[in-house]
Amino acid sequence: MSAFLSFSEVIRWPVLAIAILAAVVGSQAVITGTFSMIKQCTSLGCFPRVKIVHTSAQVHGQIYIPEINWILMILCLAVTIGFRDTKHLGNASGLAVITVMLVTTCLMSLVIVLCWHKSIFLAIGFIVFFGTIEALYFSAALIKFREGAWVPIVLAFVFMMVMCIWHYGTIKKYEFDLQNKVSINWLLGLSPNLGIVRVRGIGLIHTELDSGIPAIFSHFVTNLPAFHQVLIFMCIKNVPIPHVSPNERFLVGRIGPKEYRIYRCIVRYGYHDVQMDDQEFEKDLVCSVAEFIRSGGGASKANGLTPGVVDRDEERMTVVASGRMRMLEDEGLGGAAASESTVGPSRAARGEREIQSPSPSPTPTPAPATGVRKRVRFVLPASTPRPNAGVEEELRELTDAREAGMAFILGHCYVKAKTGSSFLRRLVINFGYDFLRRNSRGPNYAVTVPHASTLEVGMIYYV
């Protein structure tokens, strides 16, 4: 206030306007820099997952994080109300600014050596010259530690502790996933002698692994020795581009021999793509698998594969273009017959072919969770060559599984410290990481999973 009153009345209000504009520019720079750093830390697994909103389709770095914005607002109000004195605020701001400059100088010396490949003596001279000046200012700011300069030190310590706990827990969880990842040989070793039963329907297993079989699936099969006649391991990937073309969205591969009917699908989304609802997503996913089967993807490798032997080429993914094969679903028991009698001849006249499930068996099939029976058919264009018997049989089985319904299998893991771990490790894992995991956002699934068809499998990771 005294500095404000020191100006004459003629220039007092213009100076106030300039000061307000400078504060707005400075606060916007702090907010933008915080958003950028939080996004980079989240990408590196050093910060809990938060909601990141991309506000521009052209500029990838233009983002907004609601949770961080609210935290910044609360901290600013808390510091302002707590100090009520511009002197203490100035001491805190001064220590924060000089600390950033000192850290930047130290990191710049590493850039000179590692990125620019200059002489190490040049880096030493750089840090000695600029670091000495900044270290003097830093020592002068530390004198005001009790008069407000302690605030940035405390905040930095809290955020560093959060980042270290989250990074440590994430690394231990990832190491557990790698060590307990199920091999394809284990899957091929499953036989009817072990009591494994294949039930009708499609099992869609969400996983964050883009290779191998997650440990959650072995946990599920061990406790409930049954899985669906068609299994799809789905992994959602967010790529740093605005939009992903529908023809490049789905990458489909085969796991094991074709008789096992197990597939892997990687779904790619840009940061400005509108995520589809569950029905549209299910239809596109099944169509992409059907197109992969029709094109003969992985057939040459899978047919010649002997049980217990895995070829690494089997894990190759294929980009499946959508639109060539259509899937029709007729609701109700009478809808299929009516559709076949009215629509069928027109398609036959155009040369289109239909592939549908085999004739239903006399044994009644339970209706899906929605209570509506569906008749599913694949419509192939006239220019498409007729598929061979093996491909047509696989497509028919896929339609039969689609008619039975789709179940969404979600993994929910709890990370716990091993028995006999140190007190610090148990404190970090059982309390710190567990608290952050419960209060952060979960994995980003591209589909709104219907509750009636959801099966959540819980598993404890002892790290």
UniProtKB/TrEMBL annotation:
Residues 4-187 form the K+ potassium transporter integral membrane domain. GO terms for molecular function: potassium ion transmembrane transporter activity. It is a multi-pass membrane protein. Keywords: Ion transport, Membrane, Potassium, Potassium transport, Transmembrane, Transmembrane helix, Transport. It is found in: Membrane. InterPro entries: K+_transporter, K_trans_C, K_trans_N. It comes from the Eukaryota. Residues 331-370 are annotated as: Disordered. GO terms for cellular component: membrane. Residues 201-461 form the K+ potassium transporter C-terminal domain. Its main location: membrane. The chain crosses the membrane at residues 63-83, 95-114, 120-143, 150-169. It holds the Pfam family K_trans_C. Belongs to the HAK/KUP transporter (TC 2.A.72.3) family. This is Potassium transporter. It comes from Aegilops tauschii subsp. strangulata.
